[in-house]
Structure formats: C-alpha cells, structure tokens
Write a structure and sequence with these properties.
Layout (H helix, E strand, L loop, with lengths): L12 H18 L2 H14 L3 H26 L3 H8 L3 H32 L3 H17 L3 H27 L3 H7 L10 H12 L3 H11 L8 H31 L9 H39 L6 H5 L1 H19 L2 H26 L3 H4 L7 H20 L1 H8 L1
Helix pairs in contact: 1-7, 1-10, 1-11, 1-12, 2-9, 2-11, 2-12, 2-15, 3-9, 3-10, 3-11, 3-15, 3-17, 4-5, 4-15, 5-6, 5-12, 5-14, 5-15, 6-12, 6-14, 7-11, 7-12, 9-15, 9-17, 10-12, 11-12, 12-14, 15-17
C-alpha cells in the first residue's frame, strides 16, 4: 500500500488545494509557538526598533524560500539528495543538521502546545504537551495523512491570522513610529540576535524545505510546474509576512502603553491585556493552533530528510514521524523551560540556514541536477548569496546572545 503522504492528487482544483496546502504548511511551520514567543519577547525588549529586524528578516525569507523551493521542484529531488549530488556525503551532513535542528524546534513546538492548553484548559504545560502529542499522532495515523495535514494547516492558519488581527486593532499600536523604525532603528547592532532568531524561526532548518518537499511528494515538480511552484511559495511567504506584521503591531500596542508582560507566558498576557478574558481565550486558540501545525510540519519535513538513506524509514514513514513527535514530547516534559526553548530553537535553526541555502545555490545552475530546460534567475542567486552572508554573520555574532539567554 502506498504511503498516504505520498499519494499524488489529480490536477485541477485538487492541484490548487495541494499548492495552497504546501504554502500553509510552510507558513504555519514558521508561524509556530516559537514565532509568537520570539516576537513578543523581542518586541517588549526593543519596542518599535524591532520593526527593522522584521523587515530585514522578510527580505531574507524571500530570497531563501524561492531559491530552495525552485531547486527542489526543478530537480525533482529532496534537499538531502540535491546536497549529495553537489558533493557526495554532503546530503548526509545536511540531513543530520536538519533532523537535529528540527528536533530542537519541535521540542519548542510541543512546549507551545502545552502553553496553549494551559491557557484554554488550565492544565500544566507538560500535561498539555502530552494531550497535543496524542492529537498530532492522530493526524499521521489517518489513512489520508497528506490530505489531513494540508487541511489542518489551512484551517488553523486562517484562524490564527483572523484572531491576531482583531487583537492588533484593539491594542491600538503606534504604527507610524514602527514604520519609521523599520528603516531607521535607534541601534542596528543590537538587532542582530533578534533578526537571526526571526530568520531561523521562519526559514531556518527544516522550514524552507517543508513546502517544497510537500509539492515534490504530491508530484508537482519539473519545469512544466514552475508557475505553480512560484504561486505556492509566494503565497506562503505572504501569509508569513502578514502574520509577522500584525502580531508585532499587536504586541507593540500593548508595550507602548506601558503594560508589563508576564514572563511565564509573554504572548498570552499581550492578548489578555489588549482584549481582556476574550483575548486570553483567543490566545489559547492561536498558540495551540500554531503549535499543532508546527509539530506536524516539523516532524513531516525532518523525517523526509531520512527517507533516502533508509528503506525501513521510507517504508514506515508515518510511524517514523509519529516516533519523532513522541521523542520531542518526552524531551520537553523532562526539561521544561518552554519560553527559553522556543527562542533558542529559532536561533539554532538560523545557524543552519547558511549551510542548507548555500548548498542549494551550488546546485541551482548545475544542469545535471536541475535539468537543461530550467535556468535559475541571476537575481535569485544574488538574493540567496546575500541571505547566506547575512545569516552566517548574524549567526556568529548571536552566539554570545544565545549563551546569555540560556543562563
């Protein structure tokens, strides 16, 4: 029997459904609990100046996402296979980075799920994580896991955006000040750590490959599908950018009014301060939705990097994904410290990005990898190189900041 995640859809309406599903899998993987917590923590610390880090990260995201999605789908190979085609053995190294980073990120996702159910049900973070783990396992236990994964990403992704938009309006943020600070912040240097953390949480590690691998598994690849690939990638980037902006403005409105956030659950206090008890319930829904979709995306994509190296993993793909989720939950329940894990996971994934994106750039002009028909645009190559250089520099300079955070 074929793996349900690999079932290829018919073209037409179903094809668009998969394109949108891939976009939302990437977007909701990025808009996870780490994204919510990172944005809240850094907005409280840097206020309107944080707008610069957001704008810079969106620009880097565009270069990273389009490069990776195009190389994967034009070559018809997963990321690890592209890397091995560039240099034998490199794919194994990249896979190891992705899986380890994905595990760190998924521990943060599970932490966020626990925090979300703590808000909604009043259970402990650990109990909420276990309940969420069981629900996520149910998605991959389904006979049509791929369809279920797409549907969950689209529905819960839309819910997150709508609820956060409401909170943004009621918090009444100083939007003009944020717009100015996005170009002229008070201090560029101190924004290196938040910038690399946002990039890591949006396109670092496994996230850049989530949508591309989903399209590849659905059979949407090759030069004849280039327009569809671009449409899906751009949709995902736009969804992520919109959510990042409205969340930042929602938090900014609260902190600009002089309110103090609860360090045990900073994003929850933002929603509660802005919209009262209803806002608090909204946040529980947003955080839990973000967590479940990110747990699904992280597990699916991380395990996809192992399928080329093991026939057993390839054959029992869904079970391997479920095991990945269980391990992530067990680590969180043992370690705890959800807020630190969520911020640190984004930084770790940002450090991986220069390696993975650099590998894709080596492959993008090789006809033996991407074929004779497709030619990768020069502007995308330049964009990608800038993203590699910026994230490599920011990643190195942020190491001391990460160490200080963990103390």
């Amino acid at each position: 029997m074929a793996d349900p995640i690999l079932t290829k859809p018919a073209r037409g309406k179903t094809n668009w459904s998969v394109l949108l599903g891939a976009a939302f899998i990437m977007a909701t993987s990025a808009i996870g609990p780490g994204f919510l917590t990172q944005t809240t923590v850094f907005t409280e610390r840097f206020a309107a100046n944080f707008a610069f880090a957001i704008l810079a990260s969106i620009i880097i995201d565009i270069g990273a996402q389009l490069n990776v999605w195009r190389v994967i789908t034009m070559s018809r190979m997963r990321g690890q296979d592209v890397a091995n085609a560039v240099l034998p053995g490199l794919g194994h190294f990249v896979a190891a980075l992705i899986v380890l980073g994905g595990l760190a990120f998924n521990i943060g996702n599970i932490a966020g799920a626990g925090m979300g159910l703590n808000v909604l049900l009043g259970v402990s973070n650990q109990t909420g994580a276990i309940i969420s783990c069981i629900i996520a396992l149910g998605i991959f236990a389904s006979k049509e896991a791929g369809v279920a994964m797409d549907r969950v990403a689209k529905i819960l992704g839309g819910l997150m955006i709508l609820l956060t938009t409401y909170v943004m309006f009621v918090s009444n943020p100083p939007a003009g000040q944020a717009a100015v600070s996005s170009i002229f912040p008070a201090d560029y240097g101190i924004l290196m750590l938040p910038m690399i953390t946002l990039v890591g949480g949006t396109v670092g590690g496994y996230i850049t490959f989530a949508g591309g691998h989903r399209l590849l598994d659905a059979g949407i690849a090759g030069y004849e599908n280039l327009k569809e690939v671009n449409k899906s990638a751009i949709t995902g980037i736009l969804v992520t950018g919109v959510m990042r902006t409205i969340l930042f403005l929602a938090v900014l409105g609260v902190v600009a009014a002089g309110s103090k956030l609860n360090p045990a659950n900073p994003p929850a206090s933002v929603f509660q301060i802005a919209a009262g008890q209803m806002g608090y319930i909204f946040f529980g829904l947003v955080l839990w939705a973000a967590a479940i979709t990110s747990v699904v995306g992280a597990a699916y994509t991380s395990v996809s990097f192992l399928r080329s190296f093991s026939k057993t993993i390839d054959r029992y793909n869904s079970y391997t994904i479920m095991l990945f989720i269980v391990i992530s939950t067990a680590v969180f329940v043992t370690i705890g410290q959800p807020v630190k894990i969520l911020v640190l996971a984004g930084s770790l994934n940002g450090l991986i990005l220069p390696v993975t994106l650099g590998t894709m750039l080596f492959a993008c002009r090789n006809p033996k990898i991407i074929g004779e028909q497709y030619r990768h645009p020069t502007w995308l190559v330049i964009f990608g190189l800038l993203a590699v250089l910026i994230t490599a520099y920011a990643g190195i300079t942020s190491l001391s900041g990460m160490a200080a955070l963990w103390k």
